[in-house]
Write the structure tokens for this entry.
Amino acid sequence: MKNAKVLIIGAGGREHTLADAYLKSKHVGRVIIAPGNDFIPYSLKERYPDKKIIIEKDCNLKDPDSLLDIAEFYTSDLIDVAQDDALASGLVDTLKEQGYNVFGPTKEASNIESDKIWSRLFMERHSIPSPSFGFFDNTAKAEEYVRNIYSEEPDSLLYIKASGLCGGKGAIRAENIDETYAAIDLMKTFGESGESFVIEEGLIGEEFSVFAISDGNNYKIINTAQDNKTLYDDDKGPNTGGMGAHSPALVTEDIRYKIDEELIAPVIKGMAEEGVPFKGILYLGGMLTDSGLKVIEYNARWGDPEAQAILPGLQCDYYELIQACIKGDLKNFNLKTDDKTRVCIIGAAKGYPDNPIKGCEITGLDEVMETDGVKVYGAGIKVKDGKLYTSGGRVFNIVAEGQDIVTARKKGYPLMGMVTIEGNNLHYRTDIGIKDEKRY
């Protein structure tokens, strides 16, 4: 198909990256992003002058009907549901019922991400290596559970995680019983998402992410990455949606094989066996511990910011890849990536994640966009009269490429120094990719 119309569901840097990936395709003539952000057309219109880029802000990611209206208006040829709230709301199911060509897992399949209790029990059923855990909807029983843990192991590290979606901010680290009690109490601030929660063993080791695409029966690993979730350097501070990532992670072939066999294959096989085939992007967040590989979490879509570090390295037509997946012909698709390393550094507005400062002018991004081997993807940006202003917490992503992690970091970080947010309100981590750089 030529001049295909692709509708992407989501708003951030991930969706900007997906728009870029689809627009590269010879098959795609128009991309609509709902709700998108102002920086997407601002940055891509000159790169793709013969193609149309449309932002549709009048929608609600948790309301399938509002997004169905957009799909109908544009008679979309392909709809890529990239955002977790939209997946959990059952948008894929709604669109399929109306006969649309949709990429993304169903509501039931996306429980692998959107319902942490369901996900942990699934892993248990299929003997997928995971931390020990308990799940609760009662504070008193949860506190009794942790008292028993700390009476036996006073130095236990625990994570308390809201069972529902919380924008990447629902996992609380606790190093003693008082911190654990406080984290349990904090669950109620997440509303319905925190009405039930998981208390699990804190893992110690090296984190990694792996992204695979599955048509329900077959799958292919796209690439590895390592993201940085906490706000500050050295993995300090509160969890965020992600402050940066690099790809590929330094994972040996032996470990990569074990990840495939122990942590990815059992998910695709197990969900198919349970009558809930997973069709979409599977995100594995794992850890290499002294006792072997363990699953931290699974997500049902591209990570943000990992997508920004991985997708620019694809050496195949993304539209063709997604169509092959939808048609169940993934096994015969030749998926290729380049051999470069990319570092994605996120610029956030100060006050993020709780109360980011909005309405401040951003300068310097236009100059950064002119740099060879660099891409800039937007998120919390508003464009007014040709100027850029902050409108959210994570504002922009600078993605720098190199032949290795050292050259990629060396290219990316000086560019962050070229960008300012009015009032000295730019915050970013200075250590994205540094662990692999030290090992390199």
User: Anything to note?
Assistant: The chain is about 30% helix and 30% strand. The chain has a mean pLDDT of 97.
